[in-house]
Amino acid sequence: MEGTIEIEGMEFFAYHGCHEAERVVGNKFLVHVTLTTDCGKAATSDNILDALDYLSAYEVVAREMKIPSHLLEHVARRVLDALHDAFPALVCATVKVSKLNPPLGGKVAATSVTLSK
C-alpha cells in the first residue's frame, strides 16, 4: 500500500545565499518534504520498525540545512539525495525549501524552490 508522508514547516536558521552578507548574517528557512513509500506493513502492524521514521527524516534534513549553499536549488537537491540515501524504499520525494524575507529590495514573504526525485 503506497502512501505519502509529509513533514511540513520545518524551520531552520541557515547561511544559504549568493551574496556574502547572506552567508555571514544568515536567514530563516522553511522546509517541507513529501515522501512516497510503501506504508502497508506499518499500517497493519502499528510498529515504528515497519515505518519510515519521521525523526530520522527530520535529522537528514537538519543535517543538510547546516551546510551552506549559494542556491536553494542546490540545498533542495542535497536534501533529496540524502533522503533517498537514507531511505532506499522511497518511491519519490519532493522537497520545498523557502527563504523567508529574502533580500530582494522590497517586501517579499519568501522565495522557494521545489524539486522532486
Explain what the structure shows.
With 117 residues, the protein is α+β, with helices and mostly antiparallel strands. The protein has one domain: GTP cyclohydrolase I, C-terminal domain/NADPH-dependent 7-cyano-7-deazaguanine reductase, N-terminal domain (GTP Cyclohydrolase I, domain 2). The chain has four helices and four strands. The chain has helices at 20-25, 40-45, 54-65, 72-86, and strands at 2-14, 27-38, 92-100, 110-116. A four-stranded antiparallel β-sheet has the order 1-2-3-4. Helix 3 packs antiparallel against helix 4 (72-86). The longest helix is centred in the last third of the chain and has 15 residues, at 72-86. The mean pLDDT is 95.
Name a few traits of the molecule.
single chain, 117 residues, GTP Cyclohydrolase I, domain 2, 33% helix, 35% strand, elongated
